[in-house]
Design a protein that fits this description.
single chain, mainly alpha
Length: 274
């Protein structure tokens, strides 16, 4: 503990809170980390930090949806193994298939073109423009609430939402924003759009972590920064949990316009002062 300054401890806790709070809501957590790094000189040391805080956000999502996930797995397996299949089994089995289809576009794009995308769309002003794009998309669908529930989804729906998740590889484009916007645009009700969006987050986040394990193991800063990383992890976990709960309530009330206005304001300020 003596080897860390108070400023370093506060910095890592703050960045963990920032990542955790902005990860679930449609304002781009990665974009906000870039913004704060640029304007306040809060350097993020290596990829390990992002892995720790992203893993914390993932755990928060899994914890909140733990009952739904267990039911999904149980019914999905039962659909494959029992002779008398129920409607619930079929619905959950196909929901799993839709998640697989929805994950493929972003997974392939990240696997083969993530570095190229990062090199093309770099710079803090790019974040400003993409935040404004996110804001426009959120504003256009702010009042939508379709009728399509979980049992009425199609492979086409899953592919469209999956493609929108792939677009979110561009810095400043919110992953949750992109998937919720596309889900509502194709007629899902708010509850289904929200759930499908965050269930899609689970496999894409797990996959990213698996492919980054070697970076974590080989990180020269890991040993000396393990305490700050741990504090950021806890901060991100707590912030993600409460942020997601809050976003659920906002989504139910159809108040996505608040996030749209926020993206307009922050994006414009970043472009002007970046």
């Amino acid at each position: 503990m003596d080897s860390y300054s108070i400023f370093e401890i506060i910095k890592f806790i703050f960045l963990g809170l920032l990542q955790g709070f902005t990860e679930p809501i449609p304002v781009s957590s990665s974009g906000h980390l870039v913004i704060f790094q640029h304007f306040f000189g809060l350097n993020i040391p290596g990829l390990s930090f992002e892995l720790f805080v992203n893993f914390a956000s993932l755990l928060a999502v899994i914890f909140i949806y733990r009952a739904d996930l267990l039911k999904l797995i149980k019914n999905g397996l039962a659909y494959l193994t029992v002779s008398e299949k129920t409607t619930a089994m079929k619905k959950d089995f196909y929901f799993i298939l839709y998640l697989v289809v929805g994950t493929i576009p972003a997974a392939l794009l990240a696997l083969f073109f993530e570095d190229q995308i990062a090199s093309i769309f770099k710079g803090v002003r790019v974040i400003g423009f993409t935040l404004i794009i996110t804001g426009i998309a959120l504003w256009l669908i702010r009042n939508l609430n379709g009728r399509k529930a979980e049992g009425e989804l199609t492979f086409k729906d899953a592919l469209i939402v999956g493609l929108s998740q792939a677009v979110a590889l561009i810095p400043g484009i919110s992953r949750s924003g992109a998937t919720i916007v596309s889900s509502l645009a194709i007629g899902m009700n708010r509850e289904t759009a929200f759930k499908f969006s965050f269930f899609l987050y689970i496999p894409i986040s797990l996959g990213g972590m698996v492919f980054s394990v070697t970076d974590l193991v080989n990180d020269p800063n890991l040993g000396k920064l393990i305490l700050p990383y741990a504090l950021a992890f806890v901060a991100s976990l707590v912030a993600s949990y409460f942020s997601l709960r809050w976003f659920m309530d906002i989504m139910k009330k159809g108040k996505l316009g608040y996030f749209s206005i926020y993206c307009f304001i922050v994006g414009t300020l970043v472009i002007i002062f970046g």
